[in-house]
Amino acid sequence: MKRTLMPTAADKLRLSQISPHIVQSEIRSMTVECDRVGGVNLAQGVCDTELPAPVARRAIEAIHEGYNIYTRLDGVAPLREAIARKLQRDNGLTVDPEGEVLVTSGATGGLYAAALALLDPGDEVILFEPFYGYHLNTLLALRVKPVAVPLEMGTWALDLDRLRSAITPKTRAVIINTPANPCGKVFSLAELEAIAELAQQHDLFVFTDEIYEYFVFDGTKHVSPATLPGMAERTITISGLSKTFSITGWRVGYLAADRRWLGSIGYFHDLTYVCSPSPFQYGAAAGLMELPASFYEGLSAEYQAKRDQLCSALTDAGLTPSIPSGAYYVIADVSRLPGANAKEKARTLLRESKVAAVAGTAFFTGGRGENLLRFCFAKRDEDLQRACDLLRQLR
Ligand code: PLP
Fold first, then answer.
1. 205 has which bridge partners?
2. The Aminotransferase class I/classII large domain covers which part of the protein (predicted)?
3. CA 13 to ligand 1 centroid distance, Å
4. Range of 285's domain?
5. Is 273 in the pocket of ligand 1 (CB under 6 A)?
6. What is the CATH number of the domain that holds 90?
7. What mean pLDDT value characterizes the chain?
8. Is residue 137 one of the residues assigned to a domain?
């Protein structure tokens, strides 16, 4: 039979030009491999610990009380009010729950909606490297150019000259993730003040991702950039309850911004996600209103102990950790593991010790991170202990 050379309709169908660049994250593929071999998954940043009692109780009540329909596009009043109260109490940020607070589908939904509302294709946005992959991909998806400013390897100190020289007339914003995934850097007040000065000089927005704000160690203080002089009007403060209340699957986050921006961000959030799940908004509100300060102090203490446990096992295994000041990940130098690159080293580790970690290259541009792996310590005690035992057996 003769083959037809006529193009078919299917040949003309294609993915968007950006789609091939937005690929499954390395974290997801390591998770699949880890499940296959029955390993301990330190690749994924999921805290599957028990959630606080008021959070669960109120969400279940809300379902039975019939709060199962769409909410107002900026979220339910009790949650907006609880967020405003928390921002005042813990962050020193004064916001009006009517018009300056938006409940979002996680911090992820908050950043996406803010980027849709405030950035145009071709704009440049600075982010610090190592970065969180979703930040990079959010920019790429919107045809915004990410400009990575490397932090000093290992100490993660900010080099201001590098930041200054990354700013061009096309720069519209800087993304700050503090405490940071994957390196655990907590930006110091002096660093934030320097970024704030540049943002004001060059008329830049600052998007902050503060999802790990309650995970800070050794007495380190978290500072919300919006509280610095002159920063409230240009800072989009993004955070959420996924990590604090161990409810990553609930999709409850929030964003606080000047009312000049918040309305449009809300419309884009509505367009993309409609609303954060209604009963879970009530659960999150109860957590914010009812949990005492000791709950948050307890989180830091508990995770600091987990950090120390993992860092000590990594050191014993000859995989040198860079000790994080916040968040719940450790980057370790794994030069000693066989493998031509970070992905191969991650697979060697999974094969040899049944511990899954993420290739460092997922968090860097330009081929950096080949000798690094990221390990997550937000794990149940028994799982973390098993991972540490397995790492110590590594030859
Ligand atoms: N931001 C950072 C820096 C993260 O590491 C994560 C999750 O790993 C998220 C946001 C996701 O937050 P959410 O579940 O609120 O969308």
1. 173
2. 40-389
3. 33
4. 67-290
5. no
6. 3.40.640.10
7. 95
8. yes
Which one of 83, 178, 181 would you pick to mutate in the ligand 1 pocket, going by the greatest count of ligand atoms within 8 A of its CB?
181
Q: Decide if the complex's ipTM is over 0.95.
A: yes
- For ligand 1, whether the C-beta of 282 sits within 6 Å is no
How much is the pTM? 0.95
Q: Number of structural domains, the chain?
A: 2
Answer whether 242 contacts ligand 1 (Cβ < 6 A).
yes
Distance between Cα 108 and ligand 1 center (Å): 6
Q: Tell me the C-alpha to C-alpha distance, in Å, between residue 213 and each of 54, 85, 223, 297, 325.
A: 21, 16, 9, 12, 11
Does the C-beta of 106 come closer than 6 Å to ligand 1? yes
Task: Based on the fold, state whether residues 72 and 29 are members of the same structural domain.
Answer: no
d(CA 371, CA 253) in angstroms, rounded, equals 34
107 in ligand 1 pocket by Cβ < 6 Å? yes
Instruction: Let me know if residue 150 belongs to a domain.
Output: yes
- Tokens for 387, please give them: 């991972």
**Using CA atoms, how far apart are residues 29 and 22, in angstroms rounded to an integer?**
14
Residues 200 and 261 in one domain: yes
In this predicted model, what pLDDT tens digit does every residue of 283-304 receive, in sequence order?
999 999 999 999 999 999 999 9
Three-state DSSP class for 214? coil
- Residue 298 and residue 280 share a domain: no
Residues 21 and 124 placed together within one structural domain of the fold: no
d(CA 46, ligand 1 centre) in Å = 10
